[in-house]
Amino acid sequence: MTAPIQSIMFDTAARYFLEVARTGSITLAAEQLHVASSAISRQISKLEDTVGCALFERRARGMVLSSAGERLAAYVRSSALEGERVLEELRDPARQAQRQIKIASTDGFACGFLSEVMLSFRQQHPECSLSLWVGSPESVSGQVSRGDVDVGLKFSLAPERGVRVEHQQNSPVMAVMSAQHALARHKRLSLKQITQHTLGLPVQGSTLRQLLDMKFQAEGLRLNSSYSGNLATLLPLTLQGETLLFTSVISVSVLLTSGQLVAVPIPELDFQQRSVQVLTHDSEAPAPLQQAFVKHLVAAVVDHG
Length: 305
Known about the structure:
It contains 12 helices and 12 strands. It has 305 residues and is α/β, with parallel strands linked by helices. It is rod-shaped.
């Protein structure tokens, strides 16, 4: 009983057969494959016995494929190519994972800063793909500690557990407004001056809102918000001159650089306990591409912070 044709797709006999078909000579095939000619002759004979017919015509000038040999050679070559394609698909998820960088951040970094960082990094590493997840400070830390993302970026009021702090720096809170705002030309502002204007405040529960509430209460001032929401909600209102908002320079660095917004210091809001943190998993060393992104991100935080 002859063996199934699939069994010869990638075995020694098939390799020898294709090399003899390519060179037209057992001797030349033996030289290319670094084996004895007798070994190739035995494998060709074995293959012909398996398929039940002659695969070559023996001529004075060498070996020429028979019609059956032509068909078998085409089939084996096609099968080999298909096998390589399947193997490549099997390898691809692992390779794709190595090229992918997953980021988690709080809202303040997602409205321009991280977009610029991701763009500039991918210009240097076009093979990578980047994804950004945005959530609360606690959820960012959770994403990093569980290994769901490669790097986290957040504002924090305390040291983190279960994650590695790759970089930490203070990030002063300023009054940010459009260049046409009535307070835009001031060198510095007081809390009392600010309360006379329409304010856009962070959502309840955010680190910045907690600090603002405590500071205004300590100063005996009422913090009235005409608008509250995340930065993506407040920025359009601020650009239109409708609101003044409290934020760190890094969160709006792109708009400050373009001159669309102005940041004015508020000496009373010296929140030393609030810092920017770049986080990675505590026990797993990042892959080389992820390490390169962390380095790139830290440099951007230093430049814009």
